[in-house]
Automatic annotation (TrEMBL):
Family: Belongs to the NipSnap family.
InterPro entries: Dimeric_a/b-barrel, NIPSNAP, NipSnap_domain
Superkingdom to which the source organism belongs: Bacteria
Organism in which the protein naturally occurs: Paraburkholderia sediminicola
Protein name: NIPSNAP domain-containing protein
Residue ranges of domain NIPSNAP in the record: 3-72, 107-197
One Pfam family this sequence matches: NIPSNAP
Length: 203
């Protein structure tokens, strides 16, 4: 499965307008892809909205990207005075496609910038570790970038930030996380917390 992660950033007082404009764009008949989720930032750059969509193949994703680039007001970003960043990803091959549903009040987005040649070992490490790790908490998706700097982005839902800390600490103490051989493949990592919007399919 292929994914697009779009980040819209504007003044925090414009957040409601940014969300409304983006939802209008996503609902338009010409917009392709499946809308999976929308979130607002809780740390990092405030006034930001992230939108996740899935596509059946790379061609559909590429066509939608070209349409957005030529659109006069993609995601309503011109009207709401946003900056816009669109990233293309492919899902890790052993993971099921993302399906909407209610999974948590908070979503953690983690991005790891990979060393050269680090993607294949990373996928292998995650595939070995996830059967046991997924018993502790669910993973929304892990995906690798098709553009820009080699990197992966994974998304985790949580009911609370205390739950996040407790489960991650216990998984580390039990030796099941992080994936063995995984951390050696990246040189920088970021983690940010986001909250689903009212109409987000993923909640």
């Amino acid at each position: 499965m292929f994914y697009e992660l779009t980040t819209l950033s504007s003044h925090i007082l414009k957040l409601a307008q940014v969300i409304a404009n983006a939802e209008g764009y996503l609902a338009h008949a010409e917009t392709t892809g499946r809308w999976l989720g929308a979130w607002t930032s809780e740390n990092g750059r405030l006034g930001s909205v992230r939108i996740l969509r899935s596509f059946t193949d790379e061609e559909e994703l590429a066509q939608e990207r070209v349409r957005a680039l030529h659109h006069a007001d993609p995601f309503g970003a011109f009207d709401s005075e946003c900056t816009i960043e669109m990233e293309s990803y492919a899902g890790f091959p052993f993971l099921a496609p993302v399906e909407p549903g209610s999974f948590g009040k908070y979503y953690e987005f983690r991005t790891y910038w990979l060393r050269p040649g680090g993607l294949a070992p990373t996928i292998k490490a995650w595939e070995a570790a996830m059967p046991e790790r997924s018993k502790r908490s669910s993973l929304t998706v892990n995906m690798y970038a098709l553009d820009g700097i080699p990197r992966i982005t994974h998304i985790w839902p949580w009911e609370s930030l205390d739950e996040r800390i407790a489960i991650r600490a216990k998984s580390f103490a039990d030796g099941i996380w992080p994936p063995k051989g995984g951390p050696e493949q990246f040189y920088e990592a970021t983690s940010t917390i986001w909250m689903p919007t009212v109409k987000s399919p993923l909640r």
